[in-house]
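FAQ: What does the model actually see?

It sees only this:
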Amino acid sequence: VHLVVSGGGLARPGGSLRLSCTTSGYSFRTYAVGWFRQAPGKEREFVATIGGRGGNLYYGESVKGRFIISRDNAKGTSYLQMNTLKFEDTGVYYCAKGLFGSGNVLETAYNAWGQGTQVTVAS
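And it is asked to produce this:
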């Protein structure tokens, strides 16, 4: 099982970035994908999740209405479209493979993680 996160970088407040989570080594469409982030000095927090078939979408309160999670099962890839970025969105973003087909907000519901990508929102 392998997950690779890409697409991070520097963005200005109000700007957008799209992260990709490219996977291999397992049946991607069977399992949920979760996105989490960790800001400097803070614990990792839930951002968004999507079920294996593309349903069961949930978002963290701080990103609801601004971020959009999606997946392309044919490509084994999940995406996190981040819009209207804020300073507080800065952090390392991780994607993770779910234990089950339904999305979940808990870290314990995921058993494989990508390496993370840095997102910095600054003016």
